[in-house]
From TrEMBL:
This is Macrophage migration inhibitory factor homolog. GO terms for cellular component: extracellular space. It comes from the Eukaryota. InterPro entries: Macrophage_inhib_fac, Tautomerase/MIF_sf. Belongs to the MIF family.
Amino acid sequence: MPCLYISTNVNLDGVDKDPIFSEATKAVASIIGRPEHLVMVILKGKVAISFNGNKEPAAYAEIVSMGGITKQVKRNLIATLGRILEAKLSIPRARFFLKVYDTTAAGNCSKL
């Protein structure tokens, strides 16, 4: 199950977040090659972020996936998610950072 966690210093009060969730879910599913119903997206606003010495709109994101991550997938995720954040939250793509984790189910799941 891929999980995308986005933190931004943009105030999300009054922002229609549904299109962000929808577009990010579709993008992650399509790019990584997983069904949409397995993609989780978390969006948190008003996070204290300074980038390049200023507090203009910026975002930091992490994505964790059990496989499906290649160099090309990383590039596509950065480009596509950057476009979504720029279009929906006016965050310039140059002020967006994505950290990618590729993990396996066997190594990171515990038995109940």
